[in-house]
User: Fold this.
Amino acid sequence: MNVDLSEAKWFKSTRSGGTKECVEIAHLDNGAVGVRDSKNPTGPALLFTPAEWDAFTTDLSTGKFGPA
Assistant:
């Protein structure tokens, strides 16, 4: 998937602390979700389809990747 991220509105989770060890996400016009490292905003970003993002966040909330 090749998406122009120049106009994306990036934000950090409300659960993010004040440190620079955060990820940022952007909800994109095509329904995709971008994820990037907040320390490297001009670096690469991961792109998820809406279904992939829903599956990922569901797995996070159910503890599939470890303790919540």
Observations:
- The longest helix spans residues 50-61.
- The chain has one domain: 11-61.
- Helices lie at 50-61.
